[in-house]
Amino acid sequence: MGQYLILIYTDEPSWATFGEQEIGAVMAAHQSFGAKHGAALRGRGWLHPTATATTVRRPDGPRRDDFTAGEDALVTDGPFLETKEVLGGYYVVEAPDLDTALAIARDVPEPFGGVEVRPLRPTGSE
Amino acid sequence: MTDPALAVADAHRREWASVLAATVRVTRDLDLAEECVQEAYAQALVAWRYAVPARPGAWLTTAARRRALDHHRHAAVAQRALPLLVVDEVAPEPAGPPPDDLLALLFTCCHPALTAEARVALTLRLLGGLSTPEIARAFLVSEPTMAARLTRAKKKIAAAGVPFRVPASDELPRRLGGVLAVVHLVLTTGHTAPTGAALVRDDLLDRAHDLARLLRSRFPDDPDVAGLLALVLLTDARRATRTDPDGGLVLLADQDRSRWDAAMIADGRALVLEALAARPVGRYAVLAAIAAVHADAPSFDATDWPEIVGLYDVLAARWPSPVVDLNRAVAVGFADGPEAGLAALDALTGEPRLAGYGYLAAARGELLRRAGRPEEARTALEEAAALAGNDAERDLLDRRLEAVEG
């Protein structure tokens, strides 16, 4: 058994073209998804828009000896990467193999973008 | 006494894929399985000196699996960089049928989560037993590039959890289509090498043959599988006559039809009929039908060109591509004369996907020559020779150029 992160990429401006009813329908679709795949779900998140993002970087570029930004951190308004399609949410699923994870990913509702499936490395004491 | 080197070479050709697939089930690691199988073949060179075993494949599988268990013992304490392959538990015999490791390996190599380039490279490596340099040459890339491509694909299979398994029936039709596309690419690449001295790559054609037969044995009722095997047989039946003793290209019009492989053509013809009965008709069935019309013609002049034009019409309607349009125009040139063929070709000039495609210039040159327009024919054939991929094609175009009256 492994865990997979399903990253949901979306197009933010397109959401403005959706009315309350349509947005409600997408939300309902996510609820149905959760009901169908609840046994495999290990986590989920729905992000606020990228306009609410704040980025924290080291001020001095890459370093091999000091990994954290610390007190000198460069704090800026906006997402880490300016891209057209942005991360809108995610699911964490547990699946025995990629085929099972992809079958779950096919059911993720996303009207404007798509999803990316990434295997999570095992963490902890093993 | 049998020459052990010959016996080992023969077993490599026949048994490599099955031995490797059975070993993968034990190692659950593609690289380690390859290593163990190579060691088993090396061991056979010595062990078979006095007697070749009755079942070489079983001998090699046992040897490779024993190696794998040794490796496992050594590696038990070592930290693994990548997770083990996902392999399903198998119920011990006689509870269930034995697992089809060979087919599982093929579906793993052709998984849609891999790039198309990686799928064909892995298939040739793991099922075809070809070396990295051989595969690199077939696809016009350097050896380090091909080695990196294979390594990356194997890493992804392990890290992302691509399973070593034949897909379940609900997923099978979609996945089988991907496997057939890989086999078709092996066939077309072997039929006309994109680079090098030789026109034909025998090793690739042999592998396309093996893979298509393997699929046919496993999916005897699938019309697309029947269509692809028909295409392989009808294309390959002409292999011996497509080059002259010096490796020069011999065109369809000049091939010695008495040397075409009659048994392959008979098998291919029966399979085409089977594949064409399906609705909707599949692409490989139509391609094979075109090859069958050529195979049935007693001579080039007696070819049923209107039938071939009609089959290209079916292809163009269902699977449109500029290459199909080009082939259709050539067929029109034989069915209705060179001027009609040239008119059909004119519609394709300026098609960006044919820019740099030597066959367009070659077809135009040939039609112009037959239409009695030598000056224009010369220009077109010179262009085609500059764009040709392998020496055999280039030499033929040069000979055609000399033949043009000017």
UniProtKB/TrEMBL annotation, chain A:
Stretches assigned to the YCII-related domain: 4-122
Leader peptide range in chain numbering: none
Annotated stretches, region: Disordered: 50-70
Pfam families linked: YCII
Biased amino acid composition, Basic and acidic residues: 57-67
InterPro entries xrefs: Dimeric_a/b-barrel, YCII
The family this protein is said to belong to: Belongs to the YciI family.
Protein name: YciI family protein
Provenance organism: Actinomycetospora flava
Highest classification ranks of the organism: Bacteria, Bacillati, Actinomycetota, Actinomycetes, Pseudonocardiales
UniProtKB/TrEMBL annotation, chain B:
Pfam families for this protein: DUF6596, Sigma70_r2, Sigma70_r4_2
Annotated RNA polymerase sigma factor 70 region 4 type domain residues: 107-157
Name of protein: DUF6596 domain-containing protein
Domain DUF6596: 175-275
Keyword Transcription regulation: yes
The entry's keywords: Sigma factor, Transcription, Transcription regulation
Organism: Actinomycetospora flava
Family: Belongs to the sigma-70 factor family. ECF subfamily.
Ranges for domain RNA polymerase sigma-70 region: 19-75
